[in-house]
Specification:
CATH superfamily of the largest domain: YVTN repeat-like/Quinoprotein amine dehydrogenase
Number of domains: 2
Largest sheet: 6 strands, antiparallel
InterPro entries: Choice_anch_B (IPR027589), Secre_tail (IPR026444)
Strand content: over 45%
Shape: globular
GO cellular component, one term: extracellular region
CATH topology of the largest domain: Methylamine Dehydrogenase, Chain H
Number of helices: 3
Radius of gyration: 21 Å
CATH class of the largest domain: Mainly Beta
Distance between the termini: 38 Å
CATH architecture of the largest domain: 7 Propeller
Protein name: Choice-of-anchor B family protein
Helix content: under 10%
Structural class: mainly beta
Keywords: Signal
Length: about 475
């Protein structure tokens, strides 16, 4: 969100909404298409007058899923393992003052939290403490604090390298401030980059895209107010700007995310709808040559709402679109300049106009298929694709053992022959695809998979969480 906003009118409720299927275009009071409402926790339940960012954590020990929601006065932690009956475990209060802006990312079982509040710095919270909450909701204390900056708009983490990138701070002219978080409870300043505009949001990856000049480099893709900025941050002591990318009808370059092949950057301008009268507009950059990013095309939705945070999982783009709620857009034909909205869940039913209310962010990376939406006015929503239903259907059709596993996994069917097993990582990327000869029991070699949580899909329909030790 841009840093200057009108005062919000908060709509509070003490109601906790439970499972409501999407039927005839509605899930209770919420317009929808293809997404069921599993539950909602109001801001009143979470003890705040405003909501903002969200992220998620899956416990590698037992596969439990937790939503983390930013609030005006802190960060809330919610056990959503049973998404129909979420448990509000407690809150980590803000380090200094309340603020409209709070952002969270996760690395190595720790949450890293920043805020625009003066002097806030970066809070570090050990998420494994959530395993032993006995008197929810609790008021938590931070486990560590980094004071190398004060106010901060956003935080980005590259989990492959263990570096955090704080953006929009008073340091490095608002450019990325590097922090080594490989030891989460002892964050260490690691430099920064100040040779481009103030950075509002970013994504950082170990590059494996089409431009082989940068294969294996750590590349920073920043949304920098009126441009995208691409920086090589492999050498923290000597980051090097690669290029900038511009587009037409610019007002505020807000946030973007790479497609999984790292060919395209899907980016939103936060103020173009209200300034120029577009419907929700998304700009797609072609990054075939990182030295020369060019606009591939622009996608315009059927509603007028302002777009905010968007994330890619597989062939879907999950966009929090303020008053239009969550929109899921099929990007499988992005090469041919074609994107199609397939599902939505509107958390702000009264209007889809271009105003700053409604869905702030979305987290779509849980193995269960649960999707978190954090809403400025109405709190935390948990939704799921209507075709998945509420329960993990794998428990009624297939047995997977052992789970957790390290070498081999046996899959046994109660009746349906096993013909295909696919395994996806937590970003929705397929890491294994095996076909079988229609037997009722098969062994799958998982010894090449790194430790962590995965999604196993059997016969293209049944899903199960798989933990690799």
């Amino acid at each position: 969100m841009k840093r200057i906003l009108p005062v919000f009118v908060m709509l509070l409720s003490t109601i906790v909404f439970a499972q409501t299927p999407c039927e005839n275009g509605m899930a209770g009071p919420y317009p929808c298409n293809g997404l069921d409402l599993l539950s909602r926790l109001s801001l009143n339940v979470l003890g705040s007058d405003r909501g903002n960012d969200s992220w998620g954590w899956t416990d590698p020990q037992d596969g439990k899923e937790y939503a983390i929601m930013g609030l005006g006065n802190g960060a809330a932690f919610v056990d959503i393992t049973d998404p129909v009956n979420p448990i509000y475990l407690g809150k980590l209060p803000t380090h200094t003052d309340p603020s409209t802006w709070r952002d969270i990312k996760v690395y190595n079982n720790h949450a890293f939290i920043v805020s625009e509040a003066s002097g806030h710095g970066m809070q570090v919270f050990d998420l494994t403490r959530l395993r032993s909450v006995s008197n929810a909701p609790e008021t938590f204390t931070e486990d560590a604090h980094y004071s190398g900056f004060g106010n901060c708009h956003n935080i980005v983490i590259n989990e492959e390298t263990g570096y955090a990138y704080a953006v929009g701070t008073s340091t490095f002219s608002g450019g990325p401030h590097f922090v080594n978080i490989q030891d989460p409870l002892n964050p260490v300043a690691a430099g920064g980059f100040n040779e481009d505009n103030y950075c509002h949001d970013a994504q950082v990856v170990i590059y494996n895209g089409p431009d082989t000049d940068y294969t294996g480099r750590e590349i920073f893709f920043g949304s920098n107010e009126d441009r995208i900025s691409i920086v090589d941050v492999t050498d923290k002591s000597n980051p090097e700007g690669i290029s900038v990318g511009f587009y037409g009808s610019v007002d505020y370059t807000h946030q973007g995310w790479l497609t999984e092949d790292q060919r395209y950057y899907i980016m939103g301008d936060e103020l173009d709808e209200s300034t120029f009268g577009f419907n929700t507009r998304t700009i797609i950059f072609d990054l075939l040559d990182l030295d020369n990013p060019v606009v591939h095309f622009e996608y315009e939705a059927d509603v007028a709402a302002i777009d905010h945070n968007g994330y890619v999982k597989g062939n879907d783009f999950y966009l929090s679109s303020y008053r239009a709620g969550l929109r899921i857009i099929d990007i499988s034909d992005i090469d041919n300049r074609n994107m199609v909205e397939t599902k939505f869940f509107d958390t702000y039913p009264s209007s889809n106009s271009a105003r700053f209310d409604g869905a702030w962010s979305v987290y779509p990376y849980f193995a269960s298929g649960s999707i978190v939406i954090s809403d400025i006015d109405r709190g935390l929503f948990i939704v799921r694709d209507s075709t998945l239903g509420i329960n993990d259907v794998s428990t009624s059709s297939f047995a997977v053992y052992p789970n957790p596993a390290s070498d081999m996994v046996n899959i046994t069917s109660k009746g349906e022959p096993i013909v295909q097993v696919e395994i996806f990582n937590m970003l929705g990327q397929k890491v294994m695809d095996q076909n079988f000869d229609e037997k009722l029991s098969e062994n799958v070699d998982v010894s090449n998979l790194q430790s962590g949580m995965y999604v196993m899909k059997i016969n293209s329909t049944t899903t199960n969480r798989l933990l690799i030790n």
